[in-house]
Amino acid sequence: MGISGMDWEKIIFSMPDAVAVLDAGYRFVWVNTAMETFIGIPREKIIGETCYSLVHKTEKPVQGCLLQRAMDSRRRESADIEFPEKNLWLKETVDPMVDENGRFAGAIHYLSDITSVKEAERIAIRHSRNQEDLAGRLASLMDNIPGAVYRGLRDWSLTFIGADVERITGYTPEEFLSGTTTWREIIHPDDIDFVKQAFRQAVQEKRKILRVEYRTRHKDGSIRWLGDRRRLIYDAEGNFDYVDGLLLDITDRRQSEEALLATYEKLQAVIEASPLPIMALTPDGIVTLWNLSAERVFGWTPDEVIGKFNPMVPEEKRDEFRALRERVLKDGGFSGVEITRRKKDGSPIGISLSTAPLRDTRGNLTGIMAVMEDITERKQAEETIVLERDFSNAALNSLPGIFYLFDQTGKLLRWNGNFERITEYSTEEIGRMHPLDFFEDPDKRLVRERIREVFESGASSVEAELVSKSGEKITHYFTGQIFHGKGGPCLIGTGIDISERRKLEEQLQQSQKIEAIGRLAGGIAHDFNNLLTAIRGYSDLLLHRIDSSSPLRKDVEEIQKAGERATSLTRQLLAFSRKQVLQPKVLDLNTVVAAMEGMIRRLIGEDIDLVTVLKPGLWNVQADPGQVEQVIMNLIVNARDAIPQGGKVTIESSNVELDDRYVRRHTVVKPGEYVLLSISDTGMGMDEETKVRLFEPFYTTKEKGKGTGLGLSTVYGIVKQSGGYIWVYSEAGKGATFKVYFPRFGGVVETKKEGASVSAPRGRETVLVVEDEEVVRALVRSILEGNGYTVLTASDGVEAQKVGRSHKTPIHLIITDVVMPKMGGREAAESLAPHLPGVKVLYMSGYTDESIVHHGVLESGISFLEKPFTPDALLRKVRQTLDA
Q1: Which domain CATH number covers 91?
Q2: In this predicted structure, which of 250-264, 552-566, 764-778 has the lowest mean pLDDT?
Q3: pLDDT given for residue 751 in this prediction
Q4: 20 to 30 Å CA-CA from 224: which of 207, 253, 543, 592?
């Protein structure tokens, strides 16, 4: 019987599978109970709704929708769909429906629960996968371990071997398993017996583990090292059954070991060949290495030190050793530490120590490596260098001037202590300065030019003023020559302070100037004396002949006074020129000053205090007393005039010794013992210009008519002619001090003898007058003849010889000028002496001459009359000479 449509609907309605009919717009048209349950809402709410809004909760069909696919393909579409939130697997099937025109009208959807089927499939798949995974893992393990796993039998055949064997040997596992190639065949012939013996011995000893390394021949012909790790398997009776093993390619390791061994051997050779002592220690100081140089330097053999505490460390150095060891452990070594150790013979030795830690592969400290250098010779060399450096520095610093060395850029490289002292710059400052920084224009330009000359021609010199940091300018004589150092050409040179020399040169020039003026003044005075002799002589004769009531007498007296004043000036000129005749005596200057003190006080007046500081025990001097008094009086007058408003004048005396250092500053002075007479005032002082010209004749700073300008020049001449020296110390506004130095004399002070007054005597003897000046010659003749003498005359020495030799009667006295043309007076007198037995000689002159005077001092036994003279003085001296 057939089933009706209603029956089919009931049947489908009650089916366990979910069924639904949808139209072409994806709307539910009909659903069975199972579909209603699956969707989860009543049927009436399902009908008319779209499948994608109820099932997929979207606003449009989802991608891959089976209804869409069936609409496009017009055939059944199906798919397995998982709903994880429901732990559900459904099989969805869609059958399309078309109308009578063949257009898509909708589709029937079937949903079958295939969750159990899917679970069964999952379990089956999981089991299959586990089996495959285990097999894969085992295979992967066998194929990927670093080596080849194998199982071998007693006959060397293999029942299994890993795939890596092909990499190790070049042969495939199949070649070994099939017997095409045997393991025994690839073992190196030189190693086969060793491998067999090792295996037999292991079996005999029932050992379970055997490790052996040997060489094999690779299929490509190369040699490979293998590490064979075997586990020996025995049966129940203890007989060897088979072996499971692992073959490892250890070629690289063996090569590394061989290379490491070679390196070690090289290092060992280097250590043994090293000229430096090398040793290794444990952290506790136990020696583990001792090379040949260590034995050579320190004396101990390796057998004597290895395994023992470091023998070089004496007991007193143990703390130092521990400190150095801790330094290595803490800081990782050090280099070049200089210490003292000992040799085997006990003698000390200086070494330079360098260390480094020794560590294992994990970085743990295992010991200390030490390299030592015997620095005994180096220390000696360093000491020599230091000594030479110190000597060089001492030599440079002992130079009387400055030393310098600089390169072409002007960088000062070296200088001595005097350079810093004189320039007043520090070492750091000088190091930053250029040589030209020590000069100012125009000297700077001159010095720059001389520096250029040195670098171009090799040497040069210059005088210039060096300017110190404080601005003081010091004249130096600089020398420079080229010096080729490591860094290129340099200028090396010295600078000598010549400021004192300049002053001394100025002193010498001034002295020479005064000397020249003195010679001129002396010559003038000599000529003046002849004229003054006539003026004074004839004026005296006229006064004797003119009656006191005569109106002419006053005029003659004025002539006489003018002659006396002129004589005084002439004598001062002679004193300055050191041409006057001195008649020195042994003096005590304290006595001379004391005797003059009253006169000095009257001279300076009441407004000026006189202070005398006379040192007891003063040495004696030899000088003309009158001239010394003249020196004192002139200096006192000069001091008085310097303090017109009143002040103080001090006279001091003392014994002094002028040494070489003083002489270096005063070139004209001779070293020795002197008596110093010092006269100081608190007056206006004087500037440098005045001091330079102070002793020039006729130079004065006084008002016109207040002085002749000969006072100090007279002092200068007297002091110099007496063998002494005079120096002035003064500054403007600070007074002045004149220091007069007379040479010490060892004689005894002479007592002054008073002579009786003698009136002008007459005589009857014959006198030969020798004088080149006619006016003087005529005057002397007139005076002598007027007083009873017979007079012969000659104009020079040559004529005197003729007169003396031709005169028939005795000549009792020769009066002769000292300085004359053709022949001087001394020579003439001596040449006549053999022809005139017993003749006496009287010399007359206003000018010294070495024929009768030595250094201005009259010879002993010589009769002398100084020009200009009066008639009475001439007559007394003639009588005195004749009667002697």
Answers
A1: 3.30.450.20
A2: 552-566
A3: 60
A4: 207
